[in-house]
Amino acid sequence: MINVIGLGYIGLPTALMMASHGVEVIGTDYNKKLVETLQAGHTTFKEEGLDQLFEDALEAGIRFTTEYQVTDTYIISVPTPYDKFSKKVDACYVVEAVRGVLKVAPKGAVIVIESTVSPGTIDKYVRPVMKESGCTIGVDIHLVHAPERIIPGNMVYELLHNNRTIGADDMETGEKVKQYYASFCQGEIVVTDIRTAEMTKVVENTYRAVNIAFANELAKICRHDDMDVYEIIRICNMHPRVNILQPGPGVGGHCISVDPWFLVGDYPSLAKVIDESMKTNDGMPDFVLNRIHEIMEEKGLTDISRVGLYGLTYKENVDDMRESPTLQLLESQERHLAPGLKVYDPFITEDVVENQFHSLDAFLDAVDMVVIMVKHDEIRKNMDRLTQKVVMDCHNICQLDGVYHI
Ligand code: SAJ
Fold first, then answer.
1. Which ligand 1 atom sits closest to the C-alpha of 208?
2. What is the C-alpha to C-alpha distance for residues 219 and 231, in angstroms, rounded to an integer?
3. What local confidence, expressed as pLDDT, does residue 337 receive?
4. Tens digit of each residue's pLDDT (9 = 90 or more) over 191-219
5. Could you give the 3-state DSSP secondary structure of residue 370?
6. Using CA atoms, how far apart are residues 178 and 143, in angstroms rounded to an integer?
7. 8 Å CB contact between 291 and 248
8. Sign of dihedral through CA atoms 181, 187, 188, 193?
9. What is the DSSP secondary structure assignment for residue 336, as one 8-state letter?
C-alpha cells in the first residue's frame, strides 16, 4: 500500500493515477477541509480528465485521511517555496512530512520525495532528520527522489506518457519504486542517484525559464525599434536548429517562476544567465503596465478604471493563480498608487482582487480597453466582441485590426 502525503496539484493526480491502476492508495493531507471535500466525492481543482480519474480511483477504493499511515511506501508531494530574500529552497514542509512519516513507518519502508527540491536539499535537510530519529538510512528507511514533470492543463495525459526520473541510494530500491510508477507510466523511467535527480528537475524548469526570458528580451528589443517580434520568431524557428519560445506578460505558476531561483540562491557567483533571465521574466508585468500607459496616451484614454485585464490565472485554461503575471501587475499598480484596473477571469469564481467581474459581458461593458493577459479559450472564441475596444494582446492571438502588442 502507498501513502501519498500532500494532496495538491501533484499529489492528488499521482494518488488517483496509482489507485486507478491497481495500487492500494491512501491519500493524506493535513488540510482537514481539503480531505473532507475529497471524502465527499469532489475534486479540489479543475484539470482536464481529473474528474474521470477521480471516479476511477474511488471505484478502485482510494481513501483520504489527515493521518499518516503505517505502510511500506510513502510518496511525499508537498510544496517547496523559496525564501524570497535568500532565493534558497525552503524545505520546511518536506522535513515536516518526513518527520511525520518517521513516527509511523515500519522498518524497511521507502520514502519517495516527489516535491521539487534544489540539488543537495535531501543530503542537507532530510538525511539529518532521519539520523536524528535514530534511523540507519538504507536499512531502517530507504530514500528516493522521483521529481514530477507533469504540466498543468495536460496533467493526466502527461502522467501517463512522460518519461520519468527516479533517484535512489541503491539500484534495488530504485527498481522497486520504478515498478510502482510503471503501473501507469508508459514513458521510460530512468533510475539514477538522488543528487542527479534533484538537479535534473531544477535544470528542466530553468531551461524553460531562460528560453522564455530570451523571447521576452527579444520582445523588448523589437518594441524599442518597432519590429514585429512574432514574425521574427516565426521566421527564425524555420531554421532547423532554432526553437524560440513566445514572449508573454510574465511568468507565473509555482515551478518556472520559482525553481530557477534555487540555483541562483545556491550558486550566486555562477548562475549569472539564470539570474538575469529570472529578473527579465519578473520585470514583464511592469513592462506591460508601462505599455498600457503608452497605449492609453496614444489613444487619448485618460481613465485607468476603464481599462480591463482579461485573465487572472498564471496561464491559459487552468484555475491556478500562483505567482500570476496579472497579480504581479496589480501589485505593481498599487505600489505606484494608481489602482483602478478592472479584472475578469472565467476560471476564478471567488472574489480575490478589487474591481473584479464575474461575467465577460459585465466586464466588457465596464471597459474601453482590454489587455489580454491570459489566452483562455473563452477569449479566443469571443474575439468579435472586442471590435469596439482598444486591445492590447500580450499573446498574439487576436487578429483584429489595430491591436497593440507587448
Ligand atoms: N510562458 C511564456 N512563454 C512561453 C511558454 C510559457 O511566457 O513560450 C509562461 C506561461 O504563460 C506561464 C509560465 O510561462 O506563465 C509557465 O508556464 P509553462 O506552461 O511553461 O509551465 P508550468 O509552470 O505550467 O509547468 C512547468 C513544466 N516544466 C517544463 O516544461 C520544463 C512542467 O513540465 C513541470 O512539471 C512543471 O513546470 C513543474 O511542476 O515543475
1. 31
2. 11
3. 65
4. 999 999 999 999 999 999 999 999 999 99
5. strand
6. 13
7. no
8. negative
9. T
Q: Can you give the pLDDT at residue 339?
A: 78
Q: What is the pLDDT of residue 334?
A: 82
Pairing of strands 369-372, 390-393: parallel
DSSP state letters, 79-99: ---B-TTT--B--HHHHHHHH
User: Is 50 in contact with 155 (CB distance < 8 Å)?
Assistant: yes
**pTM for this structure?**
0.95
265 lines ligand 1 (CB under 6 A): no
Question: Taking every pair of C-alpha atoms in the chain, what is the biggest distance, in angstroms?
Answer: 72
Q: Which amino acid is at 170?
A: D
Query: Which residues in the chain land under pLDDT 50?
Result: none
Which entry of 201, 315, 342, 375 is annotated as an active-site residue? 201
Whether residue 248 has its Cβ less than 6 Å from ligand 1: yes
pLDDT of residue 77: 98
Q: State the DSSP string of 233-296.
A: HHHHTTSTT-------S---SSSTTTHHHHHHHH-TTT-HHHHHHHHHHHTHHHHHHHHHHHHH
Q: Which residues pair with 390 in a beta bridge?
A: 369
pLDDT at position 73:
97
Phi-psi region of 112 (alpha: psi -120 to 50; beta: other; left: phi over 0): beta
- The CA dihedral of 12, 18, 22, 25, to the nearest 10 degrees, is -50
Which amino acid is located at 363 in the chain? Answer: F
Closest CA to 42 of 58, 26, 31: 58
User: Catalytic: which of 255, 375, 394, 398?
Assistant: 255
Distances (CA, A) of 404 to 232, 273, 324, 342: 17, 30, 21, 18
CB atoms within 10 A of CB 151: 14
* Å from CA of 162 to ligand 1 middle: 15
d(CA 282, CA 265): 16
Retrieve residue 360's grid coordinates.
Answer: 465577460
Atom of ligand 1 nearest to the CA of 153: 24
Separation in Å, CA 250 to CA 57, 291, 311, 406:
36, 13, 13, 11
C-alpha cell at 131: 539520523
Question: How far is 108 from 148, CA to CA, in rounded Å?
Answer: 24
Q: How far is the CA of 209 from the centre of ligand 1 (A)?
A: 8
**What spacing in Å lies between the alpha carbon of 194 and ligand 1's midpoint?**
24
Q: Are the C-beta atoms of 295 and 392 separated by less than 8 Å?
A: yes
Q: What letter does residue 259 receive in the DSSP assignment? A: H
HSE-up of residue 233 (Cα within 13 Å, Cβ side): 19
What is the residue type of 42? Answer: H
